[in-house]
Write a structure and sequence with these properties.
The structure holds 2 protein chains of 2 kinds.
Chain A: H1 10-38, H2 46-64, H3 67-89, H4 96-115, E1 128-130, H5 138-143, E2 145-147, H6 148-166, H7 168-178, H8 180-185, H9 190-214, H10 228-238, H11 243-265, H12 272-276, H13 278-289
Antiparallel strand pairs in A: 1-2
Helix pairs in contact in A: 1-6, 1-9, 1-10, 1-11, 2-3, 2-4, 2-9, 3-4, 3-9, 6-7, 6-11, 7-9, 10-11, 10-13, 11-13
Chain B: E1 14-23, E2 26-36, E3 41-45, H1 52-60, E4 67-72, E5 75-77, H2 82-87, E6 90-93, H3 105-112, H4 122-134, H5 151-164, E7 169-173, H6 181-196, E8 201-206, H7 209-215, E9 218-223, E10 226-232, H8 238-246, E11 264-274, E12 281-290, E13 294-298, H9 305-312, E14 320-325, E15 328-329, H10 334-340, E16 342-345, H11 349-352, H12 360-364, H13 383-396, H14 413-424, E17 431-435, H15 443-458, E18 462-466, H16 470-476, E19 479-484, E20 487-493, H17 499-506
Parallel strand pairs in B: 3-8, 3-9, 6-7, 7-8, 13-18, 13-19, 16-17, 17-18
Antiparallel strand pairs in B: 1-2, 1-4, 4-5, 9-10, 11-12, 11-14, 14-15, 19-20
Helix pairs in contact in B: 14-15
Classes of the chains: A mainly alpha, B alpha/beta.
Chain lengths: 308, 510
């Protein structure tokens, strides 16, 4: 395809395409973290889960030749990490934040250890839909190459919002996240609910990791994640623990992540590294802007150690 | 033994027979027998630690009684766990709400059911809830998150929840402690109507004689774990009840009020701040605290009193206006508080005014450990002075502790309260700002704290008393202000104070 000269229009287009590409892991990790935090626990280990998911997904996809089997394996591995976190946190006097940091380092270390043999080989990629078939402009067609997982993530956000509102499971998660005492009085077991919520959250983070190695950037390296797992936690706070907001916030972060490459593509190379820092600056900026010295955070699950 | 049919409607009776509950060497409940007949409103009176909550926890299956048995609806019931109580249609409304704050009232009701469907069809659930509400004597907004409901509405919702669950025997644990007198009467008269109609049986834990006389059919009184009296409410006088409850008639302290010189000391002018949620404003237009008076601030919990306390202690940022002390601007820093001799007794002092794991002596030294004799600060700690200060205060304020080196968290609530009050009242004190000083204390402790406050007032100290206990305000204050929705809406000198009028202003109908 020949490049058509579209001038500065290239920047928003590249940002749009980049937002869709870059945001997908954010969507999955933040939805996973959203679920875990709504149950009243925080899992800081999702960065490790993400990296391990990237490695295991890539390895299984390579061995089996099917990227979806890889995604499934990543979800399973992520669920194991989540369940381990949830199980450790069950014990009295264990701090979920400290466990999360340990799990993050553990997951990354384990991924690097098992992942060494898979740095060279090429695993099959996940498919994408061409939503830009109607257009002649190659840049637009490129931007509208939408991968399967992005669409799945969008549907998942809607499904999770519906779950919190209209299903027994969703209400139970919210009850446990809001008041351990009320949950106990209802005969629920808060530890069990949090264990399962952390497990499910881990599975989603694992899928986010599989996306990194199987679609974009599309290969397994030790630097495959640039802190998406940690930023997703800030993103959940910004999204006020609402799954739909998580989706839009993930797109925003994705767009910020695509800013650097987009400007580079139109020849702006000044401050290149500065633009690459945009997502991190955005994280800091949003957290400061949405905070307040005078009032408690709105929408925060009340049992969360972060907001207590 | 025939099985109890849980679908049966109508009130049920509960009988406790020779109930004894021991925790190690301590006997919390000693051979208590009482009958709560079906369709009655039964009051359970007793001081803190009299065994009321132990008894109801045994009935609800949270504790397993060491000895004794329980008859529910005439049949023997073995309460193995709280779920058993639910199947027998026994329900309890706790003093601290067990509603989930971020869920709406409707969500709270539906999720509390044992048979909540996996996928909730809100449209049909709403139809059924509306039908249920239509048959109830009172209603609450169903679509609001519970955190936005007023305390009275939450209390009603707790009771509605028990009825929604189909419970026929309700235990209410001090249900009116967070309500205005008007709200309390409203809720209790509705509950009474339900018992009169034989829909439910009610056992209400309380320490308010007024509510017992006005609403209950029968009363049982516990003291130190023993059943010490009871019977039909109409046949017992308040004196008899209080004597049974306390062992002797309460010593009425005369608490003589000396005539004092009243000079303006602390002034709030046009003070505005955000409340806890950040959604509403606290606006105190003009409040002056004089020396030698107790200025009582009444109001229902959550109407800005907590924020006012935080404003005065410097914990909450002002968005406008100013606080002046003796004409000088005041922002409640430690230096200013020391210079103007302003002291604080916040509510729950163990949490808000103590370092719980530090010793009693260290906690008592918070006001003096860094002060030198000439008013400056010292660098090296003076262990001798700290020990002397602790000994003086422990003796002077009758603090019961095993030793000054004991952790303050090991003391009982009344002793912590006296210790902190002692600390705040040492030396010359121009103003004392107090919040709910007697919350959760027994009669003897309450009485000694109130004596100290009056004594300080008689010595010329200005006291700002923020309290949710209207009786306390009326007993101690020289002037009464009422706070409602973040504003001071009413002021009256104590001589012309009328409880009904104050209650209306507390409820926001001025």
């Amino acid at each position: 395809m020949d490049q058509v000269e579209i001038g500065l229009w290239g920047v928003p287009l590249a940002i749009l395409g980049g937002a869709i590409r870059v945001s997908t892991p954010f969507i999955f990790v933040s939805l996973g973290e959203c679920l875990t935090e709504r149950s009243g626990r925080i899992n800081l280990g999702l960065e490790g889960t993400l990296v391990f998911g990237a490695m295991s997904g890539y390895a299984v996809a390579y061995e089996s030749g099917n990227p979806f089997v890889g995604v499934l394996a990543a979800a399973l591995a992520g669920a194991c990490f989540g369940l381990l976190h949830g199980w450790i946190c069950k014990f009295k006097g264990v701090n979920d934040i400290a466990v999360g940091i340990a799990m993050m380092l553990f997951g990354m270390g384990l991924a690097f250890f098992f992942g060494k043999p898979y740095i060279q080989p090429q695993a099959p990629d996940l498919p994408a839909f061409n939503l830009g078939w109607w257009s002649d402009i190659p840049q637009l067609r490129a931007a509208l190459q939408v991968n399967v997982l992005f669409i799945a993530g969008g549907l998942l956000a809607v499904a999770m919002a519906w779950m919190f509102r209209s299903t027994r499971v969703g209400l139970i998660v919210r009850v446990v996240g809001d008041s351990t005492d009320a949950a106990r009085a209802m005969g629920l077991s808060p530890d069990r609910v949090r264990l399962l919520a952390t497990g499910a959250g881990g599975a989603l983070a694992g899928i986010g990791g599989a996306y990194l190695s199987l679609y974009y950037p599309g290969s397994w390296t030790e630097g495959v994640s640039s802190g998406q797992g940690l930023m997703a936690i800030a993103l959940v706070i910004f999204a006020r623990w609402n799954p739909i907001n998580c989706f839009w916030a993930a797109l925003l972060f994705g767009g910020a992540g695509a800013l650097g490459p987009a400007l580079q593509s139109v020849g702006v190379s000044e401050g290149y590294y500065l633009f690459f820092a945009a997502p991190y600056v955005l994280t800091l900026g949003l957290l400061i802007l949405t905070s307040s010295p005078d009032r408690a955070m709105q929408g925060a699950p009340l049992e969360l150690s972060l907001t207590k | 033994m025939s099985r109890y049919d849980p679908t049966e409607a109508g009130a049920i009776s509960v009988e406790a027979l020779h109930m004894t509950m021991r925790f190690g060497d301590f006997t919390a409940l000693d051979n208590v027998s009482m009958t709560i007949r079906a369709g009655t409103f039964h009051a359970l009176l007793g001081e803190n630690g009299a065994g009321k909550s132990t008894l109801v926890k045994c009935i609800m299956g949270f504790y397993h009684a060491t000895e004794g048995e329980l008859l529910v609806d005439g049949r023997q019931a073995v309460m193995t766990d709280p779920k058993m109580a639910q199947t027998l249609r026994l329900g309890m409304v706790y003093q601290h709400f067990t509603l989930v704050p971020s869920l709406t009232a409707a969500e709270n009701l539906v999720i509390s059911r044992a048979d909540t469907p996996a996928v909730i069809d809100w449209r049909s659930e709403r139809r059924r809830l509306d039908a249920f509400m239509a048959g109830m004597p009172f209603s609450v907004p169903l679509d609001q998150p519970v955190s936005r409901l007023a305390a009275g509405e939450k209390q009603k919702l707790e009771i509605l929840k028990q009825l929604y669950l189909g419970n026929r025997f309700l235990i209410l644990d001090e249900p009116t402690s967070v309500l205005t007198p008007g709200e309390a009467d409203e809720v209790l008269s509705h509950v009474r109507a339900l018992t009169t109609a034989s829909e439910i049986t009610v056992l209400m834990i309380t320490h308010k004689f007024r509510e017992v006389s006005a609403f209950a059919d029968e009363v049982s009184i516990l003291r130190r774990g023993k059943y010490v009296g009871g019977g039909k409410v109409g046949e017992m006088s308040v004196e008899e009840m209080s004597r049974a409850m306390m062992g002797e008639a309460p010593v009425v302290s005369d608490r003589g009020r000396a005539t004092t010189v009243k000079k303006p000391l602390l002034e709030l002018r046009g003070v505005t701040a955000k409340d806890r949620t950040g959604l509403h404003n606290i606006e105190i237009d003009d409040v002056t605290l004089n020396s030698g008076e107790i200025l009582g601030i009444a109001g229902v919990s959550g109407n800005g009193q907590m924020e006012l306390m935080e404003i005065l202690t410097g914990q909450r940022r002002l968005t406008g206006g100013e606080i002046r002390v003796n004409g000088a601007s005041y922002s409640a820093t430690r230096r200013e508080a020391r210079a103007h001799q302003i002291r604080y007794l916040p509510e729950e002092p163990l949490r808000n005014a103590c370092a719980p794991r530090m010793s009693v002596a260290e906690n008592l030294a918070f006001r003096m450990f860094d002060a030198s004799a000439d008013g400056g600060t010292i660098f090296w700690k003076n262990a001798g002075a700290i020990a002397r200060n602790a000994d003086d205060l422990i003796a002077g304020f009758n603090v019961k502790t095993t030793s000054p080196a004991a952790r303050i968290a090991a003391l009982s609530g009344g002793n912590v309260q006296r210790a902190v009050l002692g600390r705040e009242l040492t030396g010359a004190v121009k103003a004392l700002i107090v919040s709910n000083p007697c919350f959760g204390l027994d009669f003897a402790a309450v009485s000694s704290i109130r004596d100290r406050l009056i004594e300080a007032r008689n010595n010329g100290t200005a006291i700002l008393l923020i309290s949710e206990d209207l009786d306390e305000i009326l007993e101690l204050s020289d002037r009464v202000l009422v706070m409602s929705e973040g504003r001071v809406t009413f002021e009256t000198p104590i001589e012309t104070a009328d409880i009904a009028e104050i209650g209306q202003h507390m409820a926001g109908h001025g």
